[in-house]
Amino acid sequence: MSRAVTDESREPGEQTPMAKRILIGEPLTSEKLDEQLLPKKMALPIFASDALSSVAYAPQELLMILLIGGTALLTLSPWVAVAVVVLLVVVVLSYRQLIKAYPSGGGDYEVASKNLGEVPGVVVAAALLVDYVLTVAVSVASGVDNIISALPGLNPFRVEIAVGFVILIVIVNLRGVREASSVFAIPTYLFIGSVGLMIVVGLGRALLGDVPVASSAEYAVQAESLTQAALILLVLRAFSSGCSALTGVEAVSNGVPAFRKPKIRNAQTTLTLMGGIAIVLFVGLTALALLSGVHYAENPCHLIGFDCTLPQPSLMAQVAAATFGMGSIPFFIIQAATACVLLLAANTAFNGFPLLGAVLARDGYAPKALNTRGDRLVYSNGMVILGIVAIGVLIVYQANLTTLIQLYIIGVFVSFSLGQIGMVRHWRRTLRELRLLTPEAAKQESARYERRSAVLGLWINSVGATLTVVVLLIVTVTKFTHGAWLVFIAIPILAVLMLGVNRYYRDVEHEIRMDDTVHFGSSGDVAIILVNRLQKPVMKAIDYALAAKHDKTLAVHVAINDEDATRVQRDWAEHDMPIPLVIIESPYRTYTSPVISFIKSYREKHGSAVVTVYLPQFIVGHWWESMLHNRRSRRLAQQLMLVHGVSITLVPWLLDSSELIYGRRSRPLPGQQRGGQPVAQVSAHDSAQNPARRGRKVGDSGA
């Protein structure tokens, strides 16, 4: 039977705060989850923005490293670029196989866990989580670099701008995947179109003999003297920096559940489109940078004649200025599109990180809160955590792209390598299972097709595993002393923490598992209402306890001094309360210990009775009001819950200010509704004090 869901069905107090509603929108019902799934045209900017945007800084980093050895080494850049392209093709083909075999969204983590074991799987997950954080930091820092290249006056505010953009991206993503894809689609496609046009125009001018000239082409370079071994390491370091163009490829395999059906085919198509576009842009930008003579130095002061007190224009800015002219409309369009897509490249991480976090939480390697969807049907806890950590990294490294990129791609190639090795094992196991088929079953067309697919997948992933392991070794050797050692510390620490979380959940599950030794041995049922003074909240608690029909109901007052005890006894007798009052002496002015001693002595005397302690508690509407109440009931509850045989019932009393969050106030004495009396009859004085309370049914006390 279908059920209509309306705002009126939501409980009091669940209304979305105004600020939250403005920032992320109204909550969505679970039935609308399918509407949030993405078609290919929207999935491309969501999952491919990282890989596409990395072509804006991968050629820059490649040429920058080679330039350390002088301009003569730039002649090696085409060969290094070819090696990067070959690797990118192999990785894209390899991940098409992974998507087909493991479409549930676990990606490399799932592959490694199922084929290599628990520890490799957790290492892959830790590496990916670290890489997602660095993806946000590097993408935002690179985007800010391009903004500053067009507007140098903003350089002193680099960190503030970067942090502001991370906050903005978090807010957009919290609004939901579908809304985020609509926001990010235009900048991504504008970047592809504008950079593609620039490459065509620039290469066309070069073919016609009018080669664009970069602003840095006139600067000579102060090269370092290198030995043969150092030269080889420099080339390998340039290759490892160029491999940053591969980051983001794995995001599609982690995001398969977000695609519309047929999920596998749509994800594979998106991955292929992403790889093809990234290759074209990477090759075109590298070629255009070499033709125009871009000199981008790791240390700007090594450019002879350049005022190194000024920010160095990015490679993209120099190529755009050489092709269309500095200050031209196309120049600003390209810079704006590049800055936008680099900033939005962080969005890939804001999809991959929460999805991976949800998978880890489902498997017990991360807190369960990461597997909870927020108001907009996204894993909002993961997004907020990613944003906070990325902001911390940007502040620590002052949003410096050259420094941050040294930490980059280590994590992604760890996951690449273990994921591809896991896929090799997967295909080998599949082939072994196919060999066990009966001759009749093996001759069927489906078995022959599956065998061909397994053989093809084995070859592709074997090549992918070999290349990614080699690249991981190169990246490790060339980047370790430049700051990447921090990543090699962070990944094991995170992996150990995840294993610890898993062991904790496993122990808790074992402890609470139902077995035949569980029995029901309690006898008796007693309710205790803790009384400080006789007031309406206490009356409400008594009313609730009487309605629950316990075997015995007692009121207990902890006497800190004789005056309070005498006053409570006098009020108790004056109002003819229906339950007995017990006074407990507390010479040391504590509350919890006397109550615990009373409960234990009662159970010793009357048997293993279940004791329910009723604690009245104020509910307030202003944050500062909580500071004005001593919150004794919460502290008592936390300590009483440690006592065997005791359960706690918090009885809320809504103060008038709680109308701000609940939409209604507390009413006078509880129990009036069951008594069938209107408010005015039972509490005329209270109604006179507050006319807004007249004519309401009693018992509507916000419980």
Q: What CATH architecture label of the largest domain applies?
A: Up-down Bundle
**Rough outline:** elongated
Helix count equals 28
Total of domains: 2
Mean pLDDT: 78
Output the strand order for the largest sheet: 5-4-3-6-7
| Radius of gyration, in angstroms, nearest whole number | 33 Å
Give the uncertain stretches in residue-range form: 1-14, 30-35, 665-703
Distance between the termini: 30 Å
CATH superfamily of the largest domain: Amino acid/polyamine transporter I
Q: Find the CATH topology of the largest domain.
A: Amino acid/polyamine transporter I
Helix/strand class: mainly alpha
Lay out the secondary structure.
Elements: H1 18-24, H2 40-53, H3 58-66, H4 77-101, H5 107-116, H6 118-150, H7 158-174, H8 177-207, E1 220-221, H9 228-242, H10 249-254, H11 263-292, E2 303-304, H12 315-324, H13 329-363, H14 380-396, H15 401-404, H16 410-435, H17 439-442, H18 445-479, H19 485-512, E3 525-530, H20 536-547, E4 552-559, H21 562-574, E5 581-585, H22 592-606, E6 610-619, H23 625-628, H24 632-640, E7 646-654, H25 659-662, H26 672-675, H27 679-682, H28 684-689
Helix pairs in contact: 2-8, 2-11, 2-13, 3-9, 3-11, 4-9, 4-11, 4-18, 5-6, 5-16, 6-7, 6-13, 6-14, 6-16, 6-19, 7-13, 7-14, 8-11, 8-12, 8-13, 9-18, 11-12, 12-13, 13-14, 16-18
